[in-house]
Write a structure and sequence with these properties.
This protein has 370 residues and is α+β, with helices and mostly antiparallel strands. It contains 16 helices and five strands. The radius of gyration is 25 Å and the shape is globular.
């Protein structure tokens, strides 16, 4: 046997394939994130260019982002709500140096005015090279950092985020905990940094593709990537069929419906329209014991639908929360402050009884687990 060649065996075969899969999947995730970040930065650049040089810019004024959002959505360009367009513009203005990372094959996408020696000179003075920023931070990271109002503070979070490979959730937590301010007041900054990094949640390359921005950018449906488990997916299929087969007027509308509340993306498991009650019915499944956080979350969704999705003639939406843990199932309804007693009585007649839902779900859980 050649001592320079390690022996191939089945264990090594499995390990080698697994390692290649992990590394290449991470590379693919990074490539998608970089493309998405570049797209959003370019959108911001185009808007800034139009505001400066657009021949008809005066016709739009303060309505520009609203009108642009409406038109882009008509053309099915993803993630182009008014607030998102505003964020892209802020992103471009905070990071002009990203122009230097645009690859040669994409340079034609740049407005001519962006290719200038001035940007190159400024970039050379920055603490972190734009290529490193783009390689290590997803757009969701940038969005949080751009919202920080001080340039030095932004640089601090860039460095710490890259050094600790923070997830987006961890970055958000550190900003909210005033890590920068605490670091400034701390006598032992090194010790504080060690403590902050020790308990930090690291980014998982496998989960990068689950970012709502990413999968919409790729044209994927939320249901294709957002299911939390095989069991949950099975149960949602069964619940969807069960409600449609009741014959009480349920009309299926959406699965894993994405809604943007403030700056947070949320997903409603199932959305129906009830043609007898004339209202939306939102269904949330939780594979856990009931908690007030669960019903609070569903109430938020119901309130959002009431404000943003109710059409003329609609009644207020209703939420159904299904919590299940082994043989224990709880069904709760969320009414979001509804005070119409007659309507409440009517929905109690038209919607499935709690006991009926509980029995059905417990049977399905037992069947799936066996």
């Amino acid at each position: 046997m050649n001592p320079e060649r390690p022996e191939w065996n089945f264990e090594k075969l499995v390990g080698t394939i697994r390692q290649a899969h992990i590394e290449l999947a991470a590379q693919a995730g990074r490539a998608v994130n970089i493309s998405l970040t570049m797209r959003n930065w370019l959108i911001g650049a185009y808007i800034a260019e139009f505001e400066l040089r657009g021949s008809d810019r005066a016709s739009y004024g303060d309505r520009l982002l609203s009108e642009l959002s409406k038109e882009l959505r008509r053309h099915k360009v993803s993630n182009t709500g008014r607030r998102q367009l505003y964020n892209y513009l802020a992103f471009y203005r905070a990071y002009p140096q990203i122009v230097l990372t645009v690859p040669a094959q994409s340079r034609h996408l740049l407005p001519e005015t962006l290719v200038s020696p001035k940007v190159r000179t400024v970039s050379a003075l920055l603490p972190i090279a734009p290529e490193k920023l783009l390689a290590n931070l997803a757009y969701s990271h940038f969005e949080l950092i751009v919202a920080v109002d001080d340039e030095l503070k932004r640089t601090f979070y860039e460095i710490e985020c890259i050094r600790g490979n923070w997830s987006v959730r961890e970055l958000k937590r550190q900003i909210a905990s005033l890590y920068y301010e605490r670091s400034g007041l701390s006598k032992d900054k090194k010790k504080l940094a060690e403590l902050a990094q020790k308990g930090a949640e690291a980014a998982d390359p496998k989960l990068a593709i689950r970012d709502p921005y990413v999968f919409e950018f790729l044209g994927l449906k939320p249901s294709e990537v957002m299911s939390e488990s095989h069991l949950e997916d099975q149960l949602l299929d069964k619940i969807q069929d069960f409600l449609l087969e009741l014959g009480h007027g349920f009309c299926f509308e959406a699965r894993q419906k994405r809604i943007l509340i403030g700056d947070t993306h949320n997903f409603v498991d199932l959305v129906f329209y009830h043609r007898v009650l004339n209202c939306h019915v939102l269904v949330e499944l939780k594979l856990e014991h009931f908690s007030h956080e669960n019903i609070g979350q569903l109430n938020t969704y119901v309130s959002w639908y009431k404000k943003n999705m109710m059409a003329e003639g609609d009644n207020p939406p209703i939420g159904i929360l299904l919590c299940t843990q082994r043989d224990s199932t709880l069904v709760e309804y969320a009414l979001a402050g509804m005070d119409n007693g007659l309507f409440v009585s009517k929905y109690q007649l038209e919607l499935p009884k709690k006991e009926e839902m509980q029995r059905f779900i417990e049977e399905q859980v037992r069947e799936a687990e066996s």
